[in-house]
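Hi support team,

I've been running sequence recovery on a batch of backbones for a student project. Most finish fine, but this one hangs at about 90% for roughly twenty minutes before it completes. I'm not sure whether the input is malformed or the queue is just slow. I've pasted the structure tokens below so you can try to reproduce it. Let me know if you need the job ID as well.

Thanks,
M.K.
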């Protein structure tokens, strides 16, 4: 399997809205253009995305527009899955802040992030075949850990972090 992981900001992955600021719209356009380029240059068998299941994402919209459609999988752990895994409270109470552009930012990683990343990897490996090429969109904090976990024999992982080049959280 070959996986291309794109590092994203969660507030940018949602389809464009009339309420988006000019800067946010420009950044969403950059994500859309990057995804269109990747979809043109690769034959992805599936797209996996860490996203709010109640919201339509740019990647989900583009997956549905392909002919044939590319299967899109939301790999976000549900609240019940977080409770069952014993990580709900820790994630709910993690250190965070509002950034100057009023977006939610994580201040530091916590051990429970590893549980979520194991879940992401499990979802990818369960739903992709060994000969598949898949596209994965993850919040920037999860990209390197998931890439390390996917670095298994027979798997190739590439990271594209051009949209989120700076680390804004602590280990």
């Amino acid at each position: 399997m070959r996986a291309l992981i794109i590092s994203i900001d969660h507030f940018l992955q949602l389809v464009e809205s009339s309420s988006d600021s000019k800067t946010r719209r420009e950044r969403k356009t950059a994500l859309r253009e990057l995804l269109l380029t990747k979809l043109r240059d690769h034959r992805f068998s599936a797209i996996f995305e860490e996203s709010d299941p109640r919201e339509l994402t740019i990647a989900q919209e583009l997956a549905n527009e392909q002919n044939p459609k590319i299967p899109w999988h939301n790999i976000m752990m549900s609240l019940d899955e977080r409770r069952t895994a014993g990580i709900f409270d820790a994630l709910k109470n993690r250190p965070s802040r509002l950034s100057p552009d009023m977006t939610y930012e994580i201040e530091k990683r916590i051990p429970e992030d590893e549980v979520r990343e194991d879940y992401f990897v499990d979802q990818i490996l369960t739903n992709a075949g060994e000969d598949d090429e898949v596209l994965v969109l993850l919040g920037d904090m999860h990209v390197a850990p998931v890439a390390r976990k996917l670095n298994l024999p027979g798997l190739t992982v590439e990271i594209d972090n051009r949209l989120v080049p700076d680390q804004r959280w602590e280990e």
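--
Follow-up from support: It reproduced on our side and the slowdown came from queue contention, not your input. The chain has six helices and seven strands. No action needed from you.
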